[in-house]
Amino acid sequence: MAKPVDLALSGLSKHYGRNVAVEGVTLRIAAGELVALLGPSGCGKTTTLRMVAGLVEPSAGEILIGGMQVTKVPVHKRNIGMLFQNYALFPHLSIAQNVAFGLQMRGVGKAETAKRVADALALVQLGSFADRLPAALSGGQQQRVALARALVIEPSLLLLDEPLGALDKNLRESMQVELRQIQRRLGITAVLVTHDQEEAMTLADRIVIMRDGKLEQVGTPEEIYSQPATRFVAGFIGAANFLKGTVASRGAEGLAIALPGGGRLLLPTETQEAPLVAVRPEAIAIGPADGPLPGNGTPATVEQVVYRGQMTHLYMRLDDGEPLLAYLANRDGAAPDGAGMRVGERVMAHWPASANKVVRDN
Amino acid sequence: MSATALPQPRGIAWPGRSSYVSLAMLLPGLAFLFAFLVLPSLVLLANGFMTQHQTGEVAPPFTLANFDRLLFSPAYQRTLLLTLKVAFVTSFVTVVLAYPLAMAIAYAKPWFSRLVMVLVVAPLVVSVLVRSYGWQLLLGNSRTGVLNWLLEAVGFGVTPVKIMFTEWAVVVASVHVFLPLMVLPLATSLTRINPAVIEAARMLGAAPWRAFLRVTLPLSIPGLTAGISVVFSLTAASYITPAMLGGTRGAMLGNLLEQQVTTAYDWAMGGAIAFVMVAIALGANIGATWLIEYRQRARLRASGAR
Ligand SMILES: Nc1ncnc2c1ncn2[C@@H]1O[C@H](COP(=O)(O)OP(=O)(O)OP(=O)(O)O)[C@@H](O)[C@H]1O
Ligand SMILES: [Mg+2]
């Protein structure tokens, strides 16, 4: 396998007339790293990936692969492997001929081609399918052929545009594991586009959150989840309750914030104004309404109780009309935390101070 | 393989009781076609196997003499071969011209694609007769021919192009007439190709022309064969174009047929010529279909033997 290389994007932009698809994306991806581009539909993930591939010409900015300028290099000279959402196998060629295609384009000899094709098909466990036409394979098998076809040319980069989007949930999860193992084993640098946050969490070393063509936040899955930088990220990855109040007092241990619904927060920050705070639903615990007001908590009224197996989702309303959502864990055998909760009941929701995440409001 | 298979003709079910009404509605049309197309065609074809008598009658004894003369006597044979040559060259030239046009229709920006479409289809609304007159004016062998006048003006010598009243004038005009019939099925075939498949070829290291040869071309074969069989058989069957532009050197089977029937009063020979013309048209269609199936069989055999 070729030595893994790094990928650097600098100020990468794509405009379609007045339409801005991608704007000023600057990003460095280390050799052997798998980075996921994640974001809502139309945020520019595919366009970014296609600029790296050479299928879309950037309006501005630069692309460097292994330190080499490739911004002006045509597609067929970039040596990049790509998986498409609809597999894009050659329908008129057998599986073996599909995998051999890239080697033939490189003028590799017959004997070596046959050997490398066999190796690549063995890698994706499809050796016995070599003589079939793509139409005779299932979606998952076709995508594995596409993976073998992309990897056999020993590309410097692997690009994946929602490669598992057309597969059902179980197959998608097992393919995620397989994809991850192969990428690790070969140590190939990879960029994955997805709008499935679980897929991004499962596969990626780092996640890039995109919004309206721009980078919103870059970090490991844990960083993105536990330290979201903005309201958008906190709401996009997992669920979040957003709370905003007014400064009640400043003390040695931080800022005390009074919430309009009667609750309060304690923040160890030094800001002038009361910031926006995100609290994950699973951080919230429920106590009796007549207890004392906790350091971080608020009285609320239960609106809906949804039993979901591992969790009970508790939908509440604060006294100022804002919603509050809690996920209560259901440990098998023990009485569930959410047991006996009735609609209309008054409760006291509370959480540890460490669950308060200060986010930028945008 | 779905991408290369022609649409299969659906079996025509024998009408049940409920469809007697629709059968009755079909009847007048069918009767008309039978009386004025099928029957006369069969009579004409049968004539080919009979003898033209001095009395003007076409009657038994049955004979293959007409076909023998058509296929082996030098003058007739020349016309037959010329017909095949014109049809072949016309098909070839239309294929070469049609691909870029079809690709523009299939892949270009919508406004450009529509413009090309209109330009390609436009000649179809002008009658063959008018178009042939147009080509007479353009290709005239003297200074009055527009092309020669133009070339002379730019300094190519006196009347450099002398193709009027040869088969080449017929080819030029036929290409003009039949180009849309090649472009349209090709464009349809091209739009059915998943663009990601071509992008995949490019990403795997294929320069644009190699991606075309290895992926686009094979996947557009259904449209290509449809276009070739139509253009080939229509060119081989043409009458007005060679009559107006071919002269005696460029006369084709259609003109020979006319001459046999109206001048030589040899209806037996006319029948034989008609028979051969029908055979060429059928041959072009069957040959094209067979070619696709042959490719598929060969591919399956090749992959089975690997
Ligand atoms: N060829 C094009 N012409 C004009 N606008 C385009 C073109 N391609 C993409 N866009 C626009 O650029 C923006 C980004 O598109 P892109 O396909 O990159 O989004 P995406 O993040 O991949 O979305 P999805 O999750 O739906 O695939 C969209 O607003 C889209 O409409
Ligand atoms: Mg996309």
From TrEMBL, chain A:
<dbReference type="GO" id="GO:0043190">
    <property type="term" value="C:ATP-binding cassette (ABC) transporter complex"/>
</dbReference>
<comment type="function">
    <text>Part of the ABC transporter complex PotABCD involved in spermidine/putrescine import. Responsible for energy coupling to the transport system.</text>
</comment>
<dbReference type="InterPro" id="IPR013611">
    <property type="entry name" value="Transp-assoc_OB_typ2"/>
</dbReference>
<dbReference type="Pfam" id="PF00005">
    <property type="entry name" value="ABC_tran"/>
</dbReference>
<protein>
    <recommendedName>
        <fullName>Spermidine/putrescine import ATP-binding protein PotA</fullName>
        <ecNumber>7.6.2.11</ecNumber>
    </recommendedName>
</protein>
<keyword id="KW-0472">Membrane</keyword>
<dbReference type="GO" id="GO:0015417">
    <property type="term" value="F:ABC-type polyamine transporter activity"/>
</dbReference>
<dbReference type="InterPro" id="IPR008995">
    <property type="entry name" value="Mo/tungstate-bd_C_term_dom"/>
</dbReference>
<dbReference type="InterPro" id="IPR003439">
    <property type="entry name" value="ABC_transporter-like_ATP-bd"/>
</dbReference>
<dbReference type="GO" id="GO:0016887">
    <property type="term" value="F:ATP hydrolysis activity"/>
</dbReference>
<keyword id="KW-1278">Translocase</keyword>
<comment type="similarity">
    <text>Belongs to the ABC transporter superfamily. Spermidine/putrescine importer (TC 3.A.1.11.1) family.</text>
</comment>
<comment type="subunit">
    <text>The complex is composed of two ATP-binding proteins (PotA), two transmembrane proteins (PotB and PotC) and a solute-binding protein (PotD).</text>
</comment>
<keyword id="KW-1003">Cell membrane</keyword>
<dbReference type="InterPro" id="IPR027417">
    <property type="entry name" value="P-loop_NTPase"/>
</dbReference>
<keyword id="KW-0547">Nucleotide-binding</keyword>
<keyword id="KW-0813">Transport</keyword>
<feature type="domain" description="ABC transporter">
    <location>
        <begin position="7"/>
        <end position="237"/>
    </location>
</feature>
<keyword id="KW-0067">ATP-binding</keyword>
<dbReference type="InterPro" id="IPR005893">
    <property type="entry name" value="PotA-like"/>
</dbReference>
<dbReference type="InterPro" id="IPR050093">
    <property type="entry name" value="ABC_SmlMolc_Importer"/>
</dbReference>
<dbReference type="InterPro" id="IPR017871">
    <property type="entry name" value="ABC_transporter-like_CS"/>
</dbReference>
Automatic annotation (TrEMBL), chain B:
<dbReference type="GO" id="GO:0055085">
    <property type="term" value="P:transmembrane transport"/>
</dbReference>
<dbReference type="InterPro" id="IPR035906">
    <property type="entry name" value="MetI-like_sf"/>
</dbReference>
<feature type="transmembrane region" description="Helical">
    <location>
        <begin position="267"/>
        <end position="292"/>
    </location>
</feature>
<feature type="domain" description="ABC transmembrane type-1">
    <location>
        <begin position="80"/>
        <end position="288"/>
    </location>
</feature>
<protein>
    <submittedName>
        <fullName>ABC transporter permease</fullName>
    </submittedName>
</protein>
<keyword id="KW-0812">Transmembrane</keyword>
<dbReference type="InterPro" id="IPR000515">
    <property type="entry name" value="MetI-like"/>
</dbReference>
<keyword id="KW-1133">Transmembrane helix</keyword>
<feature type="transmembrane region" description="Helical">
    <location>
        <begin position="171"/>
        <end position="190"/>
    </location>
</feature>
<comment type="similarity">
    <text>Belongs to the binding-protein-dependent transport system permease family. CysTW subfamily.</text>
</comment>
<feature type="transmembrane region" description="Helical">
    <location>
        <begin position="79"/>
        <end position="99"/>
    </location>
</feature>
<keyword id="KW-1003">Cell membrane</keyword>
<keyword id="KW-0813">Transport</keyword>
<dbReference type="Pfam" id="PF00528">
    <property type="entry name" value="BPD_transp_1"/>
</dbReference>
<feature type="transmembrane region" description="Helical">
    <location>
        <begin position="20"/>
        <end position="45"/>
    </location>
</feature>
<feature type="transmembrane region" description="Helical">
    <location>
        <begin position="211"/>
        <end position="240"/>
    </location>
</feature>
<feature type="transmembrane region" description="Helical">
    <location>
        <begin position="111"/>
        <end position="134"/>
    </location>
</feature>
<dbReference type="GO" id="GO:0005886">
    <property type="term" value="C:plasma membrane"/>
</dbReference>
<keyword id="KW-0472">Membrane</keyword>
